[in-house]
Amino acid sequence: MSRVPAPDSSMRLQSLDAFRGATIVSMLVVNNPGDGAHVFQQLDHAPWNGWTFTDLIFPFFLWIVGVSMTLSFARRIEAGSSRLAMFGHVARRAAVIFLIGFAINFTSRWSFATVRIMGVLQRIGLCYLLAGAIYLAWPRLSAILLAAGALLATYWILMTTVPVPGFGPGVLTPEGNLARWIDGFVLNGHMWSVTKVWDPEGLVSSLPAIATTLLGITCGMLLRASLDIAEKTAWMFSIGAGLIFAGAVMNIWLPINKNLWTSSYTVFMAGTAYAVFALFYWLIDARGFQSWAKPFVIFGRNAIALFVLSDALAITMIKLHWIRPVFAGVFANFGSPKIASLSFAIAHALVMFLAAWMMWRKRFFLRV
Q1: Burial class (CB in 10 A: 0-12, 13-18, 19+), 320
Q2: Residue 207 and residue 179: Cα distance in Å, rounded?
Q3: pLDDT by position in tens, the chain (length 368)
Q4: Of residues 213, 256, 164, the one with CA closest to residue 63
Q5: Is the pTM for the entire model greater than 0.85?
Q6: For the chain, what are the domain ranges?
Q7: What's the 3-state SS for 311-327?
């Protein structure tokens, strides 16, 4: 096979935008069913241990943050930015992302006494801040792998050896795990409204989530390596397969669990992200098959804006009591209850695509 040069490092990777966009579309579909009581199994989170398609989405986002961070930082360093100035940028951006997530939570209740502190954007902000700080301080592959390994090992040890009052050590049930106990102490009254006593985006489980972002950084480093596209693709598939296998082996002793973001879940999902992105990279950037991915690229260029718009639309429809009549009047007749619920979710995603396409046409790209 002839050697094909990699895309210019100064250019945006269409495959990365498309992968981000496909992840956004998946999020829109799983987060906005017409009837939450009737959804296909793969479009809902695993009840506890195990995983579904839905459980891929959040770690993919964090992994993509790591990849994007590496490429963006490299361009800034080549342009003459100091690492100290870049850390200031990272801290400001992380704070803005965190505050946007907090504001979304606040608008759903309008009460500081009960507002949920953590959430998806809040975790992204924390992971961006801490993974970015680690990368800027020690921008070497060995250091990134060491940091990721240390976080995963520390979390594993904490979750399996530290005793929880009333339960003892190593209890990984919803009620008896260490992450729930610490979050219940620190975030009491400010957790996810569905559970009230534990938070899937809590503080302790953010430790391995940082490792997810660091593993994304390793892929960004690979993309910047002096290899051709075929070699990079082969490495990504190989690394992905290795991590998936390692995560499956780790699952024997520490179950794959999204709610706890266990170390096995972190490794398994990072491997899956590597493998799926390798396919996007090969098809779009190596083989030039870009037309099919254009809608995903449009979604991917305004990920945060679409996240906020989607939540704003959902909150508005809930507050105005529109979801039930719209679903009953338009979608309830679309076959089985699960098909009807999925049809509503797809319609929501299409509305968001219209917004994304309008922003694309106006060359408006929200950057925080």
Answers
A1: exposed
A2: 11
A3: 333 344 444 457 899 999 999 999 999 999 999 888 899 999 999 999 999 999 999 999 999 999 999 999 988 888 888 888 899 999 999 999 999 999 988 887 777 778 888 889 999 999 999 999 999 999 999 999 999 999 999 999 999 999 999 999 999 999 999 999 998 888 887 776 666 677 888 899 999 999 999 999 999 999 999 999 999 999 999 999 999 999 999 999 999 999 999 999 999 999 999 999 999 999 999 898 999 999 999 999 999 999 999 988 988 888 888 888 888 888 888 888 999 999 999 999 999 999 999 999 988 887 76
A4: 213
A5: yes
A6: 14-361
A7: HHHHHHHHHCCCHHHHH
CA distance 117 to 147: 26
One-letter amino acid at 12 equals R
**H, E, C per residue of the chain:** CCCCCCCCCCCCCHHHHHHHHHHHHHHHHHHCCCCCCCCCHHHCCCCCEECCHHHHHHHHHHHHHHHHHHHHHHHHHHCCCCHHHHHHHHHHHHHHHHHHHHHHHHHHHCCCCCCCCCCHHHHHHHHHHHHHHHHHHCCCHHHHHHHHHHHHHHHHHHHHHCCECCCECCCCCCCCCHHHHHHHHHCCCCCCCCCCCCCCCCCCCHHHHHHHHHHHHHHHHHHCCCCCHHHHHHHHHHHHHHHHHHHHHHCCCCCCECCCCCHHHHHHHHHHHHHHHHHHHHHHHHCCCCHHHHHHHHHHCCHHHHHHHHHHHHHHHHHCCCHHHHHHHHHCCCCCHHHHHHHHHHHHHHHHHHHHHHHHHCCCCCCC
The Cα–Cα gap between 67 and 280 comes to: 14
| Amino acid, single-letter form, for residue 156 | W
CB 267 within 8 A of CB 247: yes
Residue keyed to tokens 């949920």: 116
